Amino acid sequence: LSVTWEDGHASTFDVEILRTELMEMVLNVSESTGKHQWNWTSPVPLECTSLSVKVRSRDGQDVSEWSSQQILPGLDLPDNTDSQMYPEGKTVPVGSNMTFCCIVEEGQQFGSLWYKDTLMKENMLSRRTYATTMTNQGSSNPSGTNVVCSNEKKMIIAGAVVFVGYPPLPSDLVCETHDLISVDCQWSKGRDTYLFGMTRQTYYTLNGRNCPKARNSNMRCGLEQWDGNWTLVARNLLGEFRLTDAAELGHRVRPVAPVNLTTPEVYSWNASVGWLWKDKGFERLSLICQVQRTSHLNSSTQTYTGYGLNTVVLKDLQPDEKYSVKVRCGSQKNFWKWGEWSFPLSFQTKMDRPVAPDIWLWMDSDNLGRVLWKPLTKSESHGQISGYEVILWSPEENSQQTLTLPQSVYSLPINVTDRGSKVTVTVTAQNPAGASLPANVVIPRYLLDAEDTAISKVAFNGSGFPLSWVAHANASCGYVVDWYNTSCTQDCNVEWTRVAADNTNTMVQSGNFFAGVRYTFSVYACSSESTVLLERWHGYMQELVPSRTVPRLSPKQEGADVQLTWDQIPLEHQGGFILGYTVYLTNASHLTLLANITDPQLTNHTVKNLVLGSYKFTVKAYTAAGEDGGATVSISLEPYTYWLIMEILVALGTMTCLLIVITIAFTGFSFSIFTILWKTMPGTGLICVCFQGTLDVKPSPHSMVHIVEDSVWDSSKEALVTVPEEDEEGTGDEAADTDEPASLRYYNQVVEEGSSSQRRPHASDSSASSTGSMDSGHTDVTYTGIQTSACYRPQMQSASCPEEPQTGPEEHLQPPVGSFGGYQPQCSWKPDSPEADGDGLDQACLGSPTSVTSSQFLLPYDTSEEGKEHPSSASTWFHNLLTGKP
Question: Domain Fibronectin type-III, which positions (predicted)?
Answer without folding.
Answer: 257-352, 353-450
